[in-house]
Amino acid sequence: MASSSSTTTRFLLVLLISSLILFNVICSTTKDEDLDEDLSFLLDDGGDESLTHSDDHHNLHHQQQYDEDEDEEESYDDFEGSEGEQDEEYSMPEVDEKDVVVLKQGNFSDYIEKNRYVFVEFYAPWCGHCQALAPEFAAAATELKGQAVLAKVDASVENELGQQYEVHGFPTLYFFVDGVHKPYSGQRTKEAIVTWVKKKTGPGVSNVTTTEEADHILNTEEKLVVGFLDSLVGPQSDELAAASRIDDDVNFYQTDNPDVAKLFHIDPKAKRPALVLLKKEAEKLSQFDGQFTKSEIVEFVFGNKLPLVTVFTRESAPLVFDSPIKKQLLLFATSNDSEKLLPVFRDAAKLFKGKLVFIFVEMDNEDVGKPVSEYFGVSDGPKILAYTGNDDARKFVHDGEVTLDTVKAFGADFLEDKLKPFFKSDPIPETNDGDVKVVVGNNFDDIVLDESKDVLLEVFCS
């Protein structure tokens, strides 16, 4: 009998899981407003004006997290074959694009073949994201002149090129090397594009031999890694170069000059190799204390390149999603509350560097904060939420006072898996004594997973 009961229980559990999967599919097509808000528009890679709807992604991770804004979606048919009709209604803002090459069907293949490095933007004039990118793209083209070519294709006119390169949203960015293309999914700023292209076209690590060079780098770079080595060639330099190829958004430098090292906040008498990461944030300097190997350098850079607390924006979203540190602690608060809470949250972040990514979500920010809050089911703040990332997408909520001690305890319990997961749920019914029980998120475990009885569950959309 025990074996039969166990078999029945397993069967019912499989049936339950299948029902829940079917429930998600049905609800996604019948009542979109009841789903977690999909926010892929926050990703630079997914933040394009889309040509097709995509409702498959509901996890907060990398490029599979969030869908586009519903008011930003356009069908490919809306512009295919329009022969530029959209251009009469929409026009790109005036930008000095003297160094941006215009490519069309007639010159595209020949130009790509004759130029080794070509960074191409497929755009549409009516696309708001493309208009925002235009000045950044033009500035990057000027800075990279002679090293790589930046070009653009109006895919609302050049339909064949758009289809050939599977352009499904605007802007779509590709980097061509000797005719072979790969997508660019980094931040859409001049600095990010320039850094990324330089990494792909030049040496991974640049030598700094004079104090004048060092001054220029410090004045122009937002964040950088500097190695103080015994020699600019050899095993130490090789490890640094190998690490630099893993990270696309931080420039790496090396020097063997003590005077240069001092400008980069490295003790000129320090034992070599020494390594620091500098950034123009509240935490300006991070010092490396591991073994000087590629893997440990990479771990150090990823653990320190983000601010202590990252303000969640469209620009910062790719950095959060691309981080190998998947577990996150998110502070949800209004802009007024943030003045009091952010210093506390930053102090707590110092205790969990390399283990947790600390994120601030400004709840009264219409563009980003509100959609993110809705995605996580946070309706009031201040509140701290722990999120496991792409592993299993579990959420845990801290409703109490936000102090250094409470955040520290909550973060430690999160890492030790001591917290109870949070689910969006209707209220538990005040009376639930009928023959048919009402199951909601907050009583699911107590009723459905009660091992003392078998349960037949009906899952439906109202």
Automatic annotation (TrEMBL):
GO annotation terms (biological process): protein folding; response to endoplasmic reticulum stress
A Pfam entry, by short name: Thioredoxin
Coiled coil residues, start to end: none
GO MF, one example: protein disulfide isomerase activity
Enzyme class, spelled out: isomerase
SUPFAM superfamilies from the UniProt entry: Thioredoxin-like
Subcellular location: Endoplasmic reticulum lumen
Secretion signal, residue range per the UniProt entry: 1-27
E.C. numbers: 5.3.4.1
CC per GO annotation: endoplasmic reticulum lumen
Main location: endoplasmic reticulum
Catalytic reaction(s) noted: Catalyzes the rearrangement of -S-S- bonds in proteins
Keyword Glycoprotein included in the entry's annotation: yes
Keywords carried by this UniProt record: Disulfide bond, Endoplasmic reticulum, Glycoprotein, Isomerase, Redox-active center, Repeat, Signal
Superkingdom to which the source organism belongs: Eukaryota
Biased segments, Acidic residues type: 66-96
Region Disordered, residue ranges: 52-96
Family affiliation: Belongs to the protein disulfide isomerase family.
This protein's name: protein disulfide-isomerase
